[in-house]
Amino acid sequence: MRTTLAGAALAGLMTVTMVAAQAALTTGSVLNGTLNQNLSSNHAYVGEPVTLSNVTSNDGSGSVTGGKLFGRVTFVQAAGQGRPGKIKIYFTTLVLRSGATYNVSTTLLRTNTQTKNNTGKEVAGAVAGMLVGNMLGKTIFHTGAGGLLGAAGGFFLAKNNRQNVNIPAGSIVQVRINSVVRRQSH
C-alpha cells in the first residue's frame, strides 16, 4: 500500500512538473543561448546548421535551463560594393535537459554581431585615388587638380565598399518564441 501511494505521489509530482515546464515555455518566452560555431557573411551558406547550447529562460524563472536550440541559416548576403554583409538565422527545435523536445518558431532579438571598421579602406582609397588622379591630371589634362578629384573619388568608392558581418562562437544569442508545440515521445 505504501509503495502504491509513494508511486502515485511521484507520478503526480512528475506530471505537475512537466505541465509547469510546458506552461512556462509559451509564445513570447525569451531565451538566451551560446552560439556553438562562428558565422560570417562571407563563409556561411543557406541551410547551414546552427546550434545554441546552455539555453536558459531570460526571465530568471528557471523554466528552461541547459537546453539546446537547433536551427539553420536562412539568408546570407556577402558584403560588396554598396551592399552590407547580412546573416539571418532561424531556430526550429528546442531540446530541454530532461530530453523533452519542442518544435518552435523563433525571432532573433539580439546577437554579438561584429563588423570591421572601414576607415583603413577609406584612407587607402583616398591615397590611391589621389595618386592616380594626380598622374592622370598632370599627364593628360596638364592640371594640378587631378589629385584632389582622385582623392575624393577614391574615398567615396572605398566608403561604399561594405564589410562582412561576423558572429563569433561563444556569443550570446537571444530569441523570442513565436510558437511552441511539444513533440510526443514514442
What's the gist of this structure?
This protein is of the alpha+beta class and 186 residues long.
Structure commentary:
The protein is α+β, with helices and mostly antiparallel strands and 186 residues long. 31% of the residues lie in helices and 34% in strands. The protein is built from 3 helices and 9 strands; from the N terminus they run αβββββββααββ.
Topology:
Elements: H1 2-24, E1 30-35, E2 39-40, E3 49-57, E4 67-77, E5 86-95, E6 101-110, E7 114-115, H2 119-139, H3 146-159, E8 165-167, E9 172-182
Antiparallel strand pairs: 1-3, 1-9, 2-8, 3-4, 4-5, 5-6, 6-9, 7-8
- Strand arrangement across the biggest beta sheet: 1-3-4-5-6-9
Largest sheet: 6 strands, antiparallel, barrel
- Poorly predicted tracts of residues: 8-23
Task: State the CATH topology of the largest domain.
Answer: Lipocalin
Q: pLDDT average, as an integer? A: 74
> What is the second-level CATH architecture of the largest domain?
Beta Barrel
- The strand count comes to 9
Helix content: 25-40%
Structural class: alpha+beta
Query: Rg, please?
Result: 27 Å
Summarize the helix and strand pattern as letters.
HEEEEEEEHHEE
Give me the number of helical elements: 3
Shape: elongated
CATH class of the largest domain: Mainly Beta
Distance between the termini: 31 Å
Tally of structural domains: 2
**Binned strand content:** 25-35%
